[in-house]
Predict the structure.
Amino acid sequence: MDTFSKRKYIIAGIMLGVAAIFVLRLFTIQITNKTYKQFATRNVLRKVITFPARGLIYDRNNALMVYNKAAYDLMIIPREAKAFDTTELCGIVQLDRIELRDAIKKAKQFSYYKPSIVAGQISPEIYAPLQEKLYKYPGFFVQSRTLREYPSKSAAQVLGFVGEVNQSLIEKDKYYRSGDYIGVTGLEKAYENELRGIKGVNNYMVDVHNRIKGKYNDGITDTTAILGQNLLTGLDADVQAYAELLMTNKRGAIVAIEPATGEIIVMVSAPSYDPNLLVGRQRSTNYGVLVSDSINKPMWNRAIIGTFPPGSTFKLVNALIALQEHSITPFDRFSCSGQASSPIKCTHNHVSPLAMREGIRESCNSYFWNLFRSMINHAPSPAEGFQIWRDHVMDFGFGQKVGTELSSEVKGNIPEVAYYDKYFGQKKWNSMTIRSLSIGQGEITVTPIQLANMVATIANRGYYITPHLVKSIQDTNRVYRELKYDKKETGINPEYYSIVIEGMQAVLEETRLSQSIRIDSVIICGKTGTVQNPHGADHSAFVAFAPRDNPKIAIAVFIQNAGFGATYAAPIAGLIMEKYLNDSISTSRKELEQRMIETDLLNVIQVKK
């Protein structure tokens, strides 16, 4: 065979091989591989995200505090859209022409091929007529979602709200895309990952009239949305609503804790707002109004953000620290008259000299100044004495976040040695220089939740469980999983709490408070505080727990510009404790209840003392 013939067969073989490769490739593309079929039919396929219902939020008695209601989003795929009757569509979805134009323009800027929201959070009443006429609007379709609903209209700052996700969050978490919603504040934010669930995807065949004709590929590629997990909180919805009613036309905060568990029973910040205002089509408008209220700050959770001097409520901590450091005994007496009363004078008329029990009962400034001085001077130097004092104070949860799930919680302030060294100079300050700390004034600032945690610690005789709102979470198998929280010891000998608690009991039984705070067959232990305020009327504070043995509730009430602690904070605390322990208010206290509700302190500048 000559060389030419050999070349002919080689070339023919190569051509046949190439042809075979092309035939095999075409067979693969057209018969076995469905990818290209999907590309070819893209214009009649629609991928629809199914949003899971967010998890529900319950109170401690399994009453719903947050649930879901149906809503819909009108979507557009710009590439598929054609000319349509804008007037009719605007009338159906209740948008004006400018809003519709801007929404479509924004969608085109985002993507011509991916869906974007034109009108979000459409109610079922609007959805019904829209669905009937949707065939007239090529490129438009509806996807379902859920909106939050708040039956009790309370605990707004605690529960938080849901808002549209921004671009920075989309970039951080691939779960989200433009138009999605996310927890912005409160529990909605703290437990976003648990509440949001997992999205599903449905692929539909759509005809030329924009009507769904059925599932693509028999739904094999679809995925099912998984519901968000439910939260069971320690809140008592009825008592929460009652506490908010008592705080009508007042500024301040209330926190109540179950001492044995650390569960938060009540968290009130006043003034507040109806959480339903931040749901639906009017959310943006309402949000702007609430945020712009710089006087009442209704979206500001004073229970964890508001910082104030604790006033006389802090004397309880000073007493315990002095006992632990053996700088005094419960029986040491200090006088309210003469040189012993200087530099902090007592503002009450009472027997003198006093021991610790009576000092707490009468809230004697002179007694606690002398107690504080003996404690600071008990160490080799004032700085060392102060550091010992500060370490004990921090063990009660002050000067740090106590650990609630809410990210906006602040630390308050317990000054450091370095602060006084810088302000006065090293070795140029002593107990006299910082004497205001003895009565809970000066540089100390605390939050209402820290005060509630303090009195819960006293109720427990020396420890606290990290205060928390959520007690358990329902997992994907719909079984509740109990959450674990830390137990923290103060380092104060439990025996020293007895004398302090005796003094707190005397406050309620041997003073005028016995007339306004009482619960049948229940021993209450408490302490008032009148917090000096250089900007206007003093603040009214009160802390308490009940019953004395096996306490069920510890509470802190802080009302701005309300004067003496016994005037408003104490009676309101008493009513809340009675409501929680007895589920009702006795007839004899209804007049007091009505007076507390009707009192308006929002515009108080100065209270007559």
User: Anything to note?
Assistant: The first helix runs from residue 3 to 32.
